[in-house]
């Protein structure tokens, strides 16, 4: 054996696991015991099994035999088993574990996993079926209730480590949120045809080791289809095996180990068990790792059923032989998507490169996806077919996969080579393009540089929805609104200029320290370092993760390869939000020659700006700014909220106390009816008032808010304050009960008991998220100590005059977002005023620097220190201004200056100061 010392992976708890183990799933009965004995003799010290495999008794026999022979001691081995789906109910967990230990003849397990997040009906059948014999019967048990019982197994010494298997990111997060003992691993299927980059990145960021099962592609899986690709027969894997003098299985196992994954290949054949173990005497080079990373079938399905690879090679500005060689290098590197256009004057070179790679056997025609485009000078319907024929003659291919209208702007070519705009309607051009589909020489048609209104016209006036809209898209212009608009209509966004044209800048920076290109931005570089990637790879992964198909252009073979190596990692939601912060809305391609045209696409640019979102601790997201409705007078709320939605707000904050929930709900319903938004587009918060803290009154109080809003569900429901008041009824006039002397009547109800009822609203599906308002750090800790559903938000007063930095950091450390009410410092309440920043000359000067108002500077400050502000205004212009704060960012010195305004609260709840839960008696 080339190597008998197996390296270990180290769990977050300090324990270790051998990087390779013997898998036992689907091993033939009667052969497992011998396989285990052979594996131990060869040097394996890690055995993976499970109750559902129905062979643990054989695994136990093999282990016992080798311990009896003195080959190993129990402590030399690492044995994993798994809790099957029929034992999720908390009272069944320990018994299931003890059964496994009995079968294995062991006193403890090194690792015990929840096999799947899905629970089945409890009983003797491993796969309980319904009357139809086809569908499973599920259990009501929730795996977050199963997990504490897993923890008890550790406490009892039956298990040393616990983990998960087949859990997705949201499911892992739910366990992390409630875990006393965190899971150490997530065992998932992982191989070059299925990289699982999103979940593997998430696990790595949260300290879970990935255990990769089926690393060889599971060729013997019972459900395999005759035409399924066989990973071990893949040409790339075979070439690497030949290069290193190894088997294809050894290449695939080594690949997982170099990714940092624990790997558990399965075999009962002694020779293969030995071969699979012999993977520590060589190392795959980085280019070879990249080749394997590129094997995953990474395509997106177009609305007509065809598949398009999710990353392509752009060829704009690649000319002559440079273009031929670049396309050939790309195909050799694994690209199967090439983008060109008649305008680029390189269709002939692109076609030549593709034909040469078909001729040398690297690809077949059907392996590659080719896009070209109709230029503006051929928009006349009679010119569309001849223009297409010219492109086909240049390419010399039998068909193109995608033909795009390059822009919606028509023109005509003059004799001197200049172009003159025409009034040709792009809808007529589109109808002519539809006829091309019947020729069989183009499989799909789409558009490029179209805005949302133009797409709607095409869809409404034709029989074919474009499959693609190719637009400028990068971290400075992330097009999130247009992406969502297109996704809702099953149109894929292809992102050109995805790397913001390295070396380019739109304008000289006024700040010499400000990066001139996203490659140099600290946020991008930190993420790149975290994953061992280049800034370019991070920016391409960002575009893939937000739902686009990037087409980076390069003529450099090394960069061409690097640009494709983005499928072995995925950004976390938090990292996506971080990169959202680089959005400025600035275009590289303005297409200025078409500005005077009636169909110039960038005048209607509403779809290019979007409020970023902040991830909540439960997987949902909250828009990073909201419209507050406190003080909206009766009769005002309806129109104000409608104006806010029209301005782009997708986060509305209200409360039962405000007496405007009915108007807020009506405004949202009206905007849904108009087609401006869908229900899922808007995030709505309301609050439980103090007089309804008694658990007996919480549900009815909530139902009243729910019915007043009448929008199907509530996104976020908060306890308005920790201070209960005596219940006097559910009507508005009952909200401030007083004694004969005019003093508020207080309640002794513990808000912890109130919280427990809020959790039931979530499990019932009425509310997606729950949180707090006006709670201090000690009160939050009391909630966290009992919570089975954690608060995602604390809404508190935050403004430059009272910036709450310590409480913000406290909440952030616990995964709780902070919503900032009173963000301007209550300028209308002069008697309660703190140090106002609104009229400060320096703040006004900062605003002038960015072309912003002092109010916008203040809101940006609150965002930069980690809050979600919810400004209120009745002024149309201010409503629009308040949301326009995502195209600039304050410097550290500017943030420091705004922090200097910190003085005192404007809202102190003085009538409740004697309440035992008054929150403002401590610093934070």
Automatic annotation (TrEMBL):
Domain NADP-dependent oxidoreductase: 20-295, 312-582, 637-900
UniProt keyword terms in alphabetical order: NADP, Oxidoreductase
Record SUPFAM superfamilies: NAD(P)-linked oxidoreductase
PROSITE patterns assigned to the protein according to its UniProt record, in alphabetical order: ALDOKETO_REDUCTASE_1 (PS00798), ALDOKETO_REDUCTASE_2 (PS00062), ALDOKETO_REDUCTASE_3 (PS00063)
Keyword Kinase: no
MF (Gene Ontology): oxidoreductase activity
Lineage: superkingdom: Eukaryota
Family: Belongs to the aldo/keto reductase family.
PANTHER family, sorted: ALDO/KETO REDUCTASE
Entry protein name: NADP-dependent oxidoreductase domain-containing protein
Species the sequence originates in: Anopheles albimanus (New world malaria mosquito)
């Amino acid at each position: 054996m080339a190597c008998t010392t197996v390296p270990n992976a180290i769990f977050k708890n300090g324990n270790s696991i051998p990087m390779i183990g013997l898998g036992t799933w689907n091993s033939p009965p009667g052969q497992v015991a011998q396989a285990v004995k052979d594996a131990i003799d060869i040097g394996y010290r890690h055995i993976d099994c499970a109750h559902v495999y129905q062979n643990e008794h054989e695994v136990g026999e093999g282990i016992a035999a080798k311990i009896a022979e003195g080959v190993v001691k129990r402590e030399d081995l690492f044995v994993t088993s798994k809790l099957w789906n029929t034992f999720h109910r908390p009272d069944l967990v320990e018994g299931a574990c003890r059964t496994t230990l009995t079968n294995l003849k062991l006193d403890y397990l090194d690792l015990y996993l929840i096999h799947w997040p899905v629970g089945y009906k409890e009983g003797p059948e491993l796969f309980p079926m319904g009357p139809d014999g086809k569908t499973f019967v599920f259990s009501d048990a929730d795996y977050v209730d199963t997990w504490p019982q897993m923890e008890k197994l550790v406490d009892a010494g039956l298990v040393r480590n616990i983990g998960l298997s087949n859990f997705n990111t949201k499911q892992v997060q739910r366990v992390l949120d409630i875990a006393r003992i965190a899971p150490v691993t997530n065992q998932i299927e992982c191989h070059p045809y299925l990289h699982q980059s999103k979940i593997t990145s998430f696990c790595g960021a949260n300290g879970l080791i990935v255990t990769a099962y089926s690393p060889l592609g599971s060729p013997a899986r019972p459900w395999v289809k005759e035409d399924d690709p066989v990973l071990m027969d893949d040409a790339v894997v075979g070439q690497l095996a030949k290069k290193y003098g190894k088997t294809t299985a050894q290449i695939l196992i080594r690949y997982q180990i170099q990714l940092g994954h624990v790997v558990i290949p399965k075999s009962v054949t002694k020779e293969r068990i030995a071969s699979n173990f012999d993977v520590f005497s060589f190392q795959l080079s980085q280019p070879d790792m990249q080749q394997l990373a590129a094997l995953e079938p990474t395509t997106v399905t177009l609305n007509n059923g065809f598949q398009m690879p999710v990353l392509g090679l752009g060829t704009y500005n690649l000319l002559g032989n440079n273009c031929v060689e670049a396309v050939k290098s790309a195909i050799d590197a694994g690209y199967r998507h090439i983008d060109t256009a008649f305008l680029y004057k390189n269709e002939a070179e692109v076609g030549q490169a593709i034909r040469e790679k078909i001729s040398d056997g690297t690809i077949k025609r059907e392996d590659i996806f080719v896009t070209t485009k109709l230029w503006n000078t051929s928009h006349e319907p009679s010119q569309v077919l001849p223009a297409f024929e010219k492109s086909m003659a240049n390419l010399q291919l039998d068909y193109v996969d995608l033909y795009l209208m390059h822009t919606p702007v028509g023109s005509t070519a003059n004799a001197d080579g200049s172009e003159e705009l025409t009034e040709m309607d792009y809808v007529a051009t589109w109808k002519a393009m539809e006829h091309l589909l019947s020729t069989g020489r183009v499989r799909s048609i789409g558009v490029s540089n179209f805005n949302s209104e133009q797409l709607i016209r095409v869809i409404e006036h034709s029989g074919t929805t474009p499959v693609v809209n190719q637009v400028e898209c990068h971290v400075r212009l992330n097009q999130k609104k247009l992406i969502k608009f297109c996704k809702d209509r099953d149109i894929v966004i292809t992102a050109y200029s995805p790397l913001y044209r390295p070396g380019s800048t739109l304008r000289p920076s006024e700040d010499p320290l400000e990066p001139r290109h996203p490659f140099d931005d600290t946020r991008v570089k930190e993420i790149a370092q975290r994953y061992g990637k280049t800034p370019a790879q991070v920016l391409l992964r960002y575009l893939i993760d937000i739902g686009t198909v990037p087409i980076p252009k390069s003529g450099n073979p090394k960069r061409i390869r690097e640009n494709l190596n983005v499928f072995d990692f995925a950004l976390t939601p938090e990292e996506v939000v971080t990169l959202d912060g680089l959005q400025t809305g600035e275009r590289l391609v303005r297409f200025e020659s078409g500005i005077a045209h009636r169909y110039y696409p960038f005048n209607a640019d509403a779809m290019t700006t979007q409020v970023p979102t902040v991830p909540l601790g439960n997987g949902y997201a909250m828009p990073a700014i909201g419209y507050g409705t406190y003080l909206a007078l009766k009769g005002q709320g309806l129109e104000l909220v409608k104006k806010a939605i029209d301005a782009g707000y997708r986060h509305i904050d209200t409360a039962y106390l405000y007496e405007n929930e009915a108007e807020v709900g009506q405004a949202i319903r009206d905007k849904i009816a108009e087609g401006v938004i869908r229900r899922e587009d808007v995030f709505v918060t309301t609050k439980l008032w103090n007089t309804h803290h008694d658990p007996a009154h919480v549900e009815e109080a909530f139902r009243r808010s729910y019915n007043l809003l009448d929008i199907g569900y509530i996104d976020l429901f908060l306890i308005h304050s920790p201070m209960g008041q005596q219940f006097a009824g559910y009507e508005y006039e009952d909200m401030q009960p007083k004694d004969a002397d005019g003093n508020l009547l207080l309640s002794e109800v513990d808000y912890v008991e109130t919280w427990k009822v809020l959790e039931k609203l979530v499990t019932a599906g009425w509310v997606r998220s729950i949180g707090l308002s006006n709670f201090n750090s000690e009160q939050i800790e009391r909630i966290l100590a009992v919570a089975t559903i954690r608060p995602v938000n604390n809404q508190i007063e935050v403004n430059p005059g009272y910036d709450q930095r310590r409480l913000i950091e406290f909440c952030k450390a616990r995964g709780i977002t902070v919503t900032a009410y009173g963000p301007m410092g209550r300028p209308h309440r002069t008697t309660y005023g703190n140090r106002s920043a609104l009229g400060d000359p320096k703040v006004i000067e900062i605003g002038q620097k960015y072309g912003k108002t002092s109010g916008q500077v203040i809101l940006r400050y609150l965002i930069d220190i980690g809050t979600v502000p919810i400004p209120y205004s009745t002024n149309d212009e201010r409503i629009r201004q308040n949301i326009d704060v995502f195209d600039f960012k304050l410097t550290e010195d500017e943030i420091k200056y705004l922090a200097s305004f910190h003085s005192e609260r404007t809202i102190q709840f003085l009538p409740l100061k004697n309440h035992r839960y008054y929150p403002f008696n401590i610093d934070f």
